[in-house]
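Protocol step 4 of 5: obtain the predicted structure for the target chain.
Materials: sequence only (see below). No template structures provided, no constraints applied. The aim of this step is simply to have a reference model before the mutagenesis design in step 5. Sequence pasted as it appears in the construct record:
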Amino acid sequence: MSLPRTRKVPFGGDYNPEQWPEEVWKQDYRLFDTARIDTVTLGVFTWARTQPAPDVYDFSTLDRIVERAGVEGRQVCLATGTGAHPAWLARSSPEVTRVDFEGRRHRYGQRHNSCPSSPVFRRLSAELARRIAARYADHPAVVGWHVGNEYGGACYCELCAAGFRDWLRARYGTLAALNTAWYTTFWSHTFTDWEEIEPPSALTEHWRGPNHTAFQGITLDYLRFMSDAMLANFVDEKAAIRQASDLPVTTNLMGMYRPIDYHRWADHLDFVSWDNYPPDDRSPGWMALAHDLMRGLKAGQPFWLMEQTPSYTASRDVNPLKRPGVMRLWSWQAVAHGADAVLFFQMRASRGACEKYHGAVIGHAGRDDTRVFREVAALGAELDRLGGATLGARTPARVALLFDWDSWWALEISDGPSRLVRYQQVVHAYYRALWDAGVDVDVLPVTADLTGYDVVVAPALHLLKGDLPQRLEQVADRGGSVLTTFLSGRVDEDDQAFLMDVPGPLGALTGIRVDEWDAREPEVVNPVRLTVGDTELEVGSRLIFELVIPQGAEVVGRYAADFYAGTPAVTRNSFGAGHGWYVAAGLDQAGVNWVVRRVLERHDLLGPYADVPDLESTVRVAPDGTRLRFLLNHRAEPVEVDADRSGVDLLTGDRITDGLPVRLDAYGVRVIREERAAG
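Step 4 output (structure tokens):
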């Protein structure tokens, strides 16, 4: 199963007409026409409306909403409405609400408040999905199904405790195997009955918050279980939909979202969709990483950008406004990295509650002359001109970056070496170096096939699973380069230390061993002197300083301070026809960039605009072989570069000539259909 079939990149977003009288719908669709809105996501939060009581279903409002969209010529991604359960359900079945980390049973309220292990919730949510699919499966406007909404959170109730024990029985088979995996001889924790096992919470294994646990193995398994428990909710609803419809099914993911291992979900999604709300408005590389992670969930299949704000969010302490041109730029960035849909939250601003100040295509006054609406309309016109040129296009990456939820969890629940090291920040630093170098990157799970890549970057690969060390060795053996960092190769799948020198099974590839490591406060900087040939640079390093003893590796960088001054901080090891690189220190961004570029240079992988700061360049290749070059200027001022290849800008019709200047305005975008090289 693939993406919904569309003739062009779908454009529109999350629309909630149930919040408005029908005369407002007329105004909205008139404005949708102006903005070229062709796709709406409907019914995300309609459970209370469509099922107002346990045995009562009322589809009259949803019927009118879906019918109106069809009459107006819009495509519909129809939701099951189960993103938030109704008040009557919490009252009639209190066990449906969650128990939090502190052991408190929640009452009705908020949004993510459904226990994923509740039989009542699972039965009623699946039944609602079944009825909606049966009712609207043959409606010509419906092109796909949207299950739930932004799954997340956790529950620690007795139902989840029982579910956890069942999950553990399936995983380990016997208590003996479980006790071995969890290392329960420590602190007299040996379990002699399955019923003795409790969810790890503030009442059990955690004493200073969610990341401080006495037994990492127990907590790691509960994180895995909770991800799987919520996946079971999605699978319940998808199976119910399949009784009536073969249209593709998705749910909106949230990029680099810690509580849920999206790699465990990928096979169950017909297509990936996700909501892009970056942590600030200054980190385009962060968004690019998240886009590439989402694209990598299903082996490079394009995804839908299901939500983004056209202007500002309303969920943070500070919610900056997107500057003129930035909404357009970020939308095209999503397309550049694999998006086959550009959708917003929300189409019309809610009048009340916590999202009334969240950005919307249509504001409270319903005007069509606001800056935000005009920019959305202009983007809609551009997407109309683009047509279907990018649909199904893939990214021809020769560089892979490994992203692993198990390593993320295990690293951040570990006692030592440093609680200041954050997995996302380490991964982003190395991705940012690749992004700055203009390299197309596939962000992949550690289980992915690596045979098609010249370079594999695996930052903070803390937890090693399966045959990954051997597959990384194969990359280097055939002439590729593997780059990994501090705190890699430390523990196995059960979060137990390897009984061998650090970095464990990566030792042969990297040609080093680490006997000691130093961790310091953020203000402590140890300079590192980097040298390859005639290229030298002194950079800073912070937080983690591993003391490396080469076992055949060449020293590329050395510490310049403390008692270990002069010892290796960065190494390169010849392995087969290739190399295994190891970065033992928390280098600053300049240092990471320097190392990454040395790796890329060996494979002639630097992008054509690698020396132009904040000019993003990426490629997608259409099913017919057409190469589409995206140039995105993330600066607030214009930039001019020489074209790398001749072609036509699909947004303007401008002719681009190899070697001649190409200008991009502030926050400007070019989508160039490149001509095939002669011969």
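Step 4 remarks: Residues 216-242 form the longest helix (27 residues). The chain has four domains: 11-84+114-150+222-386, 158-219, 399-602, 615-674.
Proceed to step 5.
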